[in-house]
Amino acid sequence: MTASAPTLKESLLEGLLSDGCVAAGSCSAEPFAETRVEIERRKLSGESADLTFTFNDPTRSTDVQVSLPWATTLVVGAWSYAESAGSPGGPRPATGRVARFATEDHYRGLRRALHRCAASLRSEGYLAEVLVDDNRLVDRAAAVRAGVGWWGKNTMILTPKWGPWMLLGSVATDASMPASSPSRRDCGTCAACLPACPTGALVAPGVLDARTCLAYWLQAPGVIPVDLRKALGDRIYGCDDCLEACPPGRRVVDSAVTTSGRHDLLTLWAMSDSALLAEFDHFYVPRRNANILRRNIVVALGNCGDDEADELLQSLLSDADWLLRAHAVWALAERIGEACRPDLQRLARVETRVEVRTEIARVVSRAIEPIQGNKL
Q: Is the pTM here over 0.90, yes or no?
């Protein structure tokens, strides 16, 4: 262990920046007590919905020493993905968009930089463990403590130049080194992200209610709440609205002229399950069930389909998967309205799943209420 603590820190942070990180810092690996309290509060209030990941075990995710008892320091790096992610461009019929963070595996560069950092530490005789997209650490709390940025009102970590368009990761180590100074910036009076959320899921500055968050529902199993489906628009994974409204980093987004993240929905639908999952292998898909992605496609087609899509939606009323049938009922009614009545009548006679029957009843009561004496 040859390098002095200040020299080691400078070397590691300079290495992260030269490897492509846009910000870096170091901090103590002591427990994040306030973050644990907030996670527990959101679980108790229901705001966390069924979120897992760092919500599963707050004791572990807010105290890296539970998993790595030897850790004394966290070296934190931030990677901006906005420029390489491009822009999905404007809406087009029967196409869907993916949020910028998920247009590809943007974590690759960050992982590479952090693994080089860890290798440098090991070469000095220290222990080191890379934590990227890892449920053993609330990476945003570590980034704030390490001075990488500040916790924004949209719940993201922000920096003056890059705004919220960053991915975060850390290297836990037993090396002792000085902590970086905390960020002197904050959001001030700006609250542009709050009204930008299409469902009002940002219920207070820095507080997200996952129960109405579109990004949450596009990753969740089961039925997407009917009152959120119109708001989903053409989204099939993730949501960027609160990030796009954030003034810091807007220049970076505006400069991303490459079209990326927009997909032809019927082309995606025609893929086999294995091909669809391979196309989006970096997505979080519960139990790697391709029909979660297909459900999202169905809802998007209900919002932005075309005539060819309508034929697909009609065929899905007899699909073997009840989840797809249920969402197809809604999507077809959105597309063709009263004209779907004969198809729903036929389905109602044979449908056994209560979820699908509920969708049929909801559509009928809304769409054909003026018609008298002719109930399904």
A: yes
